[in-house]
């Protein structure tokens, strides 16, 4: 219950080298998908692909209501092939005060989730969403 979906573009394009129109489309189509599929509005948070951004990306995102670009401390490895690799990355990155991310388009994290939850508990930590960490009015 402590996972927060976020806007991360339609097709994982590097927005820092994209035109205004492409940036807008990438964020808007992902926004529409989250809203239509899950009834979820990810605003104000979005995660720039690859951690790359420019003033143009920030401005276009803000026009769409995405005023809080989020960076991260560690990743569960969107490209890893197994749940064992995913858990190893969790062991490396999960610690107090860190934003740890993953892509929601693979089943490997689902299969490792029980182990990851155990790891979090064994370290005396608890998960929170961005809204819980920063408050509902964070911009």
Task: Describe, in plain words, how this protein is organized in 3D.
By secondary structure, the chain is mostly helical. The chain contains 5 helices and 4 strands; from the N terminus they run αβαββαβαα. The strands form 2 sheets. It has a two-stranded parallel sheet. The protein has a two-stranded parallel ribbon with strand order 3-4. α1 packs across α2 and α3 (83-93) packs parallel to α4 (108-122). The longest helix has 19 residues, at 20-38. The protein is globular and about 45 Å long. The two termini are 23 Å apart.
Main attributes?
two-stranded parallel sheet; two-stranded parallel ribbon; single chain; 139 residues; 4 strands; mainly alpha
Q: What secondary-structure arrangement, pairings included, does this model have?
A:
Layout: H1 20-38, E1 45-46, H2 55-63, E2 68-69, E3 74-75, H3 83-93, E4 100-101, H4 108-122, H5 130-134
Helix pairs in contact: 1-2, 3-4
- The helix/strand series, from N terminus to C terminus, equals HEHEEHEHH
Number of strands: 4
Strand order of the largest sheet: 1-2
- Give the helix tally: 5
Radius of gyration: 15 Å
Helix content: 40-55%
Mean pLDDT: 88
Low-confidence stretches: none
Overview in brief:
This protein is mainly alpha-helical and 139 residues long. Helix content is 42%, strand content 6%.
């Amino acid at each position: 219950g402590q996972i927060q979906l976020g806007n991360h573009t339609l097709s994982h394009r590097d927005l820092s080298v994209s035109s205004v129109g492409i940036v807008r489309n990438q964020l808007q189509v992902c926004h529409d998908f989250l809203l239509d599929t899950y009834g979820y509005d990810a605003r104000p948070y979005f995660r720039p692909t690859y951690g790359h951004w420019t003033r143009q990306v920030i401005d276009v995102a803000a026009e769409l209501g995405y005023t809080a670009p989020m960076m991260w401390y560690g990743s569960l490895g969107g490209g890893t092939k197994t749940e064992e690799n995913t858990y190893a990355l969790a062991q490396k990155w999960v610690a107090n005060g860190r934003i740890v991310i993953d892509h929601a388009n693979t089943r490997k994290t689902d299969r490792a989730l029980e182990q990851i939850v155990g790891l979090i508990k064994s370290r005396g930590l608890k998960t929170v969403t961005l809204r819980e960490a920063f408050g509902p009015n964070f911009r």
